[in-house]
């Protein structure tokens, strides 16, 4: 299941690493707080190359995180992982129309029309 979460970066936890049967691994957990009346704190894991991406952000940054949610069973207990596959700053103007820069030159920069460009009316 893939979901996009938005929220404020509250904390970057210490990086974890080790070696498994598939070789070395790196994991970086971080906490975001979702906006709204009933905000939630969510611990998200970034693995491998994604683990280094979170260090480019600072506590208090508004983030947009695309995650996969997966549960697995081990010794008759269930564990749920929230794994980030894209981490980016959230746009501060989300939900509003974007502002556009005008490409029309000022009137004094527009050359006068040639005689054959004049309309007959």
Explain how this protein is built.
The protein has one helix at 49-53, and strands at residues 2-12, 16-20, 23-33, 41-47, 62-74, 77-89. The protein has 121 residues and is mainly β. The chain has a single domain (2-91), classed as OB fold (Dihydrolipoamide Acetyltransferase, E2P) (Beta Barrel), CATH 2.40.50. Strands 1, 2, 3, 4, 5 and 6 form a six-stranded antiparallel sheet that branches. The relative contact order is 0.20.
Give a short synopsis of this structure:
The chain has one helix at 49-53; strands at 2-12, 16-20, 23-33, 41-47, 62-74, 77-89. It has 121 residues and is mainly β. It has a single domain (2-91), classed as OB fold (Dihydrolipoamide Acetyltransferase, E2P) (Beta Barrel).
Notable traits:
121 residues, mainly beta, OB fold (Dihydrolipoamide Acetyltransferase, E2P), 6-stranded antiparallel beta sheet, 6 strands, 4% helix
What would you report as the Rg, rounded to the nearest angstrom? 25 Å
Major sheet, described briefly? 6 strands, antiparallel
Average pLDDT confidence is 83
Count of distinct strands: 6
Using the 3D structure, state the CATH architecture.
Beta Barrel
Helix content: under 10%
Number of helices: 1
Domain tally: 1
The CATH topology: OB fold (Dihydrolipoamide Acetyltransferase, E2P)
Name of the top-level CATH class: Mainly Beta
Q: Which stretches of 5+ consecutive residues score pLDDT under 50? A: 95-104
CATH superfamily assignment?
Nucleic acid-binding proteins
